[in-house]
Known about the structure:
By secondary structure, this protein is of the alpha/beta class. Helix content is 32%, strand content 21%. Strands 6, 7, 8, 9, 10, 11, 12, 13, 14, 15, 16 and 17 form a 12-stranded mixed beta sheet that branches. The longest helix has 24 residues, at 38-61. Its EC number is 6.3.2.8. InterPro entries: Mur-like_cat_sf, Mur_ligase_C, Mur_ligase_C_dom_sf, Mur_ligase_cen, Mur_ligase_N, MurCDEF_pg_biosynth, UDP-N-AcMur_Ala_ligase_MurC. It is found in: Cytoplasm.
Amino acid sequence: MSTSPATSVSDSRYFQPNFLExxxxxxHLTGLHHKNTVLEKCILASKKNRRISLIKTRxxxxxxxxxIEHLKDRNQQNWVHFVxxxxxxxxxxxxxxxxxxxxxxxxxxxxxxxxxxxxxxxxRLHIGHSTLNIQSENGSRFPNCIVVSSAxxxxxxxxxxxxxxxxxxxxxxxxxxxxxxNHKLIAVSGTHxxxxxxALLAYVLKSMGDDLMAVxxxxxxxxxxxxxxxxxxxHFVLEADEYDGCFLGLSPYIAVLTNVEWxxxxxxxxxxxxxxxxxxxxxxxxxGGHLIxxxxxxxxxxxxxxxxEGSKPEHTSGxxxxxxxxxxxxxxxxxxxSSTNEWHASSICPNSKGGSDYVLCHKGQPxxxxxxxxxxxxxxxxxxxxxxxxxxxxxxxxxxxxxINSLKLHLLDFIxxxxxxxxxxxxxxxxxxxxxxxxPTEVYFVLQAARQRFPSMRLVVVFQPHTYSRLASLKDDFxxxxxxxxxxxxxxxxxxxxxxxRNVCGKDLATSIISSPSEYIPSLDDVVDKLxxxxxxxxxxxxxxxxxxxxxxxxxGPKLLHExxxxxxxx
Length: 571
């Protein structure tokens, strides 16, 4: 099952534990707006390649009825197959392909919630990977191309078979590049905060009347398409993922950079390797474009010294201009908590909605009072990124004060997204929440958000480490971050994409947490039983249960709620 790590966390300076100091293929393809598209050229080229491949393989493939020449029929609807379609990233691209008029199919190792919407849209879905998934029932027809998730290995059966018979295989990054190249792309990047920032940005723009397209790496209940917005306008908001260099094929008009630190340790050797990829991404910004960057974040700010081929950018009143030998330049706009940023927040405080209120300032001057429903200082930063982006994007259409007045209404209406401090339910005085946090910085900030919303309640965290490599590299930082809970339950590691040695386990993390009581319970079902037993001893006690992780720990909350209802005889 493909996963796309993404969280709702931003800055690493507003709170400061020690470890945080680092801290349509093509535009509207078949018959919509652009008929002579890059993808059509790709398909024509692929058909030529497949004719060559057919000559080479006809003898050995005859028994499989590989009538690849049938793909030459221009009257046939183009067929695209997505491998790893259950993940949030590829499911969005599959849904867009349906909107573009493609015949779409897809496969994954197990069903996911994202596949529900695809099924309703008419996508043919397969559980498990097989060569049979990429041919018609009578074996006479094959996809025009295959798009593959970053989580899919090169020895995947469908990928190998497609290559053997000449079907072009594209990775997600190539498809995204072609999908967005004719749009005014706003690419939201960063180690943390991409999903919430891109979702909030797309929601606000849509609410302000922008007929945009958007792809977000999480389910957004306020999006009709779940994690997709489909529109005919020029703007495209995209959550730009750094894993596997996926964002390096993009050419954004606006790039948003929330923060930079070491993450995806299975792909990036160290923090410097992460920075190298982000520097390459910044060089992809279009001439005359904009970089909107969190000026509070040490890692993000360090990139500014490298954007200009060895020369440092010029600073002018919070706005900087970067020039280099190969581009005319792009504007840099900073945001953050610090007043040194062009856009910044002051007087931050909790509000009655469980979120935050703050005073929005521009170049030191207060402009408006902003209210959010979503909690935490990291979401204040995410909202600032959205404000800075919208004002750049729409500044020629409305006055700044008019824009801000419209913005503040829609910022308040945003209720968040799936698995980002998501409320699962409440029984008596027990509140159950879930979050995707799977990195120490993310864990720290979501715990601070929980404390903000429930300042006097006991906070019990169930943490499922995500990948052995991440746990081994960041175990001590996890221990520090989790110590802000009143009690911690660590489960077995949820492992994906890994084949190396497993010389660390959840128990090692549990014993490393010194400041708070902790225990190791490998099985999620046992965690549910243990928590239900403890809560039922004193059902009126005020307590918050918070499940954290990018694996299947999100199943604990609903199961626990059901078990408590059963044991406490509540219907």
